[in-house]
């Protein structure tokens, strides 16, 4: 006699996060209506880390989030290694599918060899996530779209533009021109200009031969005289590019300069440069934490939690992520 057993598949979503940005993780969990899981990460005396997931994840859809940024107590490399350990723990606990959620993708500027004997570290990061056990990666506003091809599996590229554009529509005034700070951001600036029904300009710059993180803004292509200029970029790190562009725009007759960037890394002299620059408002998102000492009047931080939560929900329900952004995350 043959007995047939009919099974009804049950889907379970589990969200875990590293220790870099617990506030963002809690916001995302709230948007999804789930409880943020406990990864039970501890540090040993010799600096090693251990993760012990506090509940069964067998057969579950597991999302492991880490904001890759240095904090006062840990480096960006610590954040990356912590996420790898968590992914390995979930894989060994028989999770059905593991998605590495990286609001800011680390080492994204090392996406090609610009000189001999250099690494392509963005590819190495993708390989490490894959070997650890990630089946999928999710990230916001990659520095270079080609990074999606570094991972051997689905890569969900999210964009912060809907959030930032909505905020700009509510706050901009007067005659506006969107400005690309360099040639690599022209397409992004064009999309912002289209959504804001404004003109576009771009800054021609070159890297200084005097050293890294030094930029010379040489000229502006486009009409900025008498206008409010909005510089758009994917990240602001030491703020050299943004501040050099802002100074040039004011020299060319701009009445005011705002800056918009998805990732507010704000490393080293960035905050002081912004304070002393013509930029009157810098709008960023919370893909990386903004510590109290960097929370100055000029800086406005918007939450990306809703966008990431929508994408996680789409992946869990096996629906389209690109439809969330009207396909604009694919260009």
Describe the structure.
The chain is of the alpha/beta class. Helices cover 28% and strands 24% of the residues. The protein has helices spanning 22-32, 76-92, 121-132, 161-171, 186-196, 240-251, 270-275, 305-316, and strands at residues 13-17, 42-43, 49-50, 61-65, 97-102, 136-140, 155-158, 176-180, 199-207, 215-221, 228-236, 256-264, 279-285, 299-302. The chain has a seven-stranded mixed beta sheet with strand order 10-9-8-11-12-13-14, with helices on both faces. A five-stranded parallel beta sheet has the order 1-4-5-6-7, with helices on both faces. A two-stranded antiparallel sheet has the order 2-3. A hairpin with a 7-residue loop joins β9 (199-207) and β10. α1 (22-32) packs across α8 (305-316). It starts with 12 loop residues before the first strand and ends in a 15-residue tail after the last helix. 41% of the residues are buried.
In short:
The chain is α/β, with parallel strands linked by helices and 331 residues long.
How are the secondary structure elements laid out?
Layout lengths: L12 E5 L4 H11 L9 E2 L5 E2 L10 E5 L10 H17 L4 E6 L18 H12 L3 E5 L14 E4 L2 H11 L4 E5 L5 H11 L2 E9 L7 E7 L6 E9 L3 H12 L4 E9 L5 H6 L3 E7 L13 E4 L2 H12 L15
Parallel strand pairs: 1-4, 4-5, 5-6, 6-7, 8-9, 8-11, 11-12, 12-13, 13-14
Antiparallel strand pairs: 2-3, 9-10
Helix pairs in contact: 1-8
């Amino acid at each position: 006699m043959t007995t047939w057993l009919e099974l009804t598949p049950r889907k379970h979503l589990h969200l875990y996060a590293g220790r870099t940005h617990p506030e963002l993780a809690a916001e995302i969990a709230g948007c999804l209506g789930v409880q943020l899981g406990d990864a039970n990460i501890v540090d040993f005396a010799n600096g090693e880390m251990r993760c012990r997931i506090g509940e069964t994840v067998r057969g579950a859809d597991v999302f492991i989030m880490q904001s890759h940024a240095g904090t006062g107590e840990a480096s960006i490399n610590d954040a990356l290694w912590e996420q790898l350990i968590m992914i390995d723990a979930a894989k060994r606990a028989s999770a059905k599918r593991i998605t590495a959620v990286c609001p800011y993708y680390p080492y994204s500027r090392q996406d090609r060899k610009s000189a001999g004997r250099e690494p392509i570290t963005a590819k190495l990061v993708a390989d490490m996530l894959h070997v650890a056990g990630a089946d999928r990666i999710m990230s916001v506003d990659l520095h270079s779209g080609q990074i999606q091809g570094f991972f051997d599996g689905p890569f969900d590229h999210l964009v912060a533009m809907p959030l930032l554009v909505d905020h700009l529509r509510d706050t901009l005034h007067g005659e506006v021109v969107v400005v690309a700070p360099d040639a690599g951001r022209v397409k992004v600036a064009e999309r912002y200009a289209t959504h804001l029904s404004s003109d576009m300009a771009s800054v021609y710059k070159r890297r200084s031969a005097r050293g890294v993180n030094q930029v010379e803004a040489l000229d502006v292509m486009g009409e900025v005289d008498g206008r409010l200029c909005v510089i758009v970029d994917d990240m602001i790190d030491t703020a050299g590019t943004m501040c050099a562009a802002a100074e040039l725009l004011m020299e060319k007759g701009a009445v005011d300069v705002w800056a918009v960037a998805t990732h507010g890394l704000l490393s080293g002299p960035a905050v002081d440069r912004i304070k002393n620059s013509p930029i009157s408002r810098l709008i960023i998102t919370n893909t990386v934490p903004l510590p109290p000492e960097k929370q100055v009047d000029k800086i406005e931080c918007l939450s990306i939690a809703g966008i990431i939560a929508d994408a996680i929900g789409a992946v869990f329900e096996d629906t389209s992520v690109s439809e969330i952004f009207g396909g604009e995350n694919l260009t």
